[in-house]
């Protein structure tokens, strides 16, 4: 026979509400009582009845996630942080992937709405007032991450522009005078929401101005950026830095430079952005900006659950970043 909360409460000599708090890791209960309840639940092989709980609480205990894809290692790290923190709070996650397609993104959102998720965490490719109004028609709470949509929605991100500006100033201090900037997503400027990439570009240009760099930067927006690099003279009297808007581009650039016999950073410097976990296997160690990807996931879940359970989001200021000084600059 299936164990119930009432049975656990009777054995432990507490109320059903106390059992619910213990099993869902909520405050208002002593550690001693919580431990006893959890042990009894394990002995009885208690399994929560999510359908019944949803009817009583008016919630499904699920949160929807809308991402581009999982090819970028940062997104995989983000999902691990979101899922782990949601599970600790008694919530499950539905993940949907848009492949950066605006219409697919809307279908993903509507899929999650129809399955009555309690909230949605959205990394959007859509933008503009029409899309903001589209989102506002739904009653489901929405948090946007990375790509800003509008002031109508909670936003969690980092100081993108400031981080890239400081990175360029750091390179200027190291005597770099010629800069090449690689960011293929910029090809979608005006067509898709690339807020984070636009902020990084602005920071890059502001850093050049602050550093009094007189050589005009070369900005590569083409997805075939290695082909374009192959047409450039990279080893010049003016020390060259190749600045990439994410680590994956930087790793491709480093492989290319090695393949043509150029030394990093003696001949050409390389800078990335994100500090993905696989960098520990790369030599020379890439100089990059550490993106607090796991903290973004944790904060998104914390804010969303506060909105679901208490009616208001936890307002989170832009998160900070950290320069990781490797050996590539």
TrEMBL record:
Q: Which UniProt keywords apply?
A: DNA-binding, Transcription, Transcription regulation
Q: Which GO terms describe its molecular function?
A: DNA-binding transcription factor activity; transcription cis-regulatory region binding
Annotated HTH lacI-type domain ranges read 3-57
What domain of life is recorded for the organism?
A: Bacteria
- Which SMART domains does the annotation name? HTH_LACI
Record CDD domains: HTH_LacI, PBP1_LacI_sugar_binding-like
**Sequence intervals crossing the membrane:** none
PANTHER family from the UniProt entry: HTH-TYPE TRANSCRIPTIONAL REGULATOR GALS, LACI-RELATED TRANSCRIPTIONAL REPRESSOR
Descriptive protein name: LacI family DNA-binding transcriptional regulator
Which species is the source of this protein? Answer: Halalkalibacter suaedae
């Amino acid at each position: 026979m299936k164990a119930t909360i009432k049975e656990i409460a009777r054995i432990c000599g507490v109320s059903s509400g106390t059992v619910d708090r213990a099993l869902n890791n909520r405050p208002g209960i002593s550690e001693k009582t919580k431990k006893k309840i959890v042990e009894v639940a394990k002995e009885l092989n208690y399994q929560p009845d999510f359908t019944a709980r949803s009817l009583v609480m008016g919630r499904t205990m699920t949160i929807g996630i809308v991402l581009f894809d999982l090819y970028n290692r940062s997104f995989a790290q983000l999902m691990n942080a979101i899922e782990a923190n949601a599970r600790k709070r008694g919530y499950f996650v539905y993940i949907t992937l848009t492949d950066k397609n605006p219409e697919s993104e809307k279908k993903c959102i509507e899929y999650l709405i129809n399955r009555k998720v309690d909230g949605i965490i959205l990394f959007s490719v859509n933008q503009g007032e029409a899309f903001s109004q589209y989102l506002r028609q739904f009653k489901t709470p929405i948090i946007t991450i990375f790509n800003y949509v509008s002031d109508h929605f909670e936003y969690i991100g980092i100081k993108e522009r400031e981080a890239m500006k400081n990175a360029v100033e750091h390179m200027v201090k190291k005597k770099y005078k010629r800069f090449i900037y690689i960011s293929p997503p910029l090809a979608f400027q005006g067509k898709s929401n690339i807020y984070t990439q636009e902020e990084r570009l602005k920071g890059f240009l502001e850093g050049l101005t602050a550093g009094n760099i007189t050589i005009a930067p070369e900005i590569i927006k083409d997805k075939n950026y290695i082909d374009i690099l192959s047409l450039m003279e990279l080893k010049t009297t003016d020390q060259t830095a190749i600045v990439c808007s994410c680590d994956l581009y930087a790793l491709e650039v480093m492989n290319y430079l090695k393949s043509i016999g150029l030394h990093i950073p003696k001949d050409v410097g390389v800078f990335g952005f994100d500090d993905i976990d696989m960098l520990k296997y790369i030599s020379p160690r890439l100089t990059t900006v550490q993106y607090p990807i796991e903290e973004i996931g944790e904060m998104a879940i914390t804010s969303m659950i506060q909105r679901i359970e208490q009616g208001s989001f936890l307002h989170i200021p832009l998160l900070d970043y950290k320069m990781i000084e490797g050996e590539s600059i």
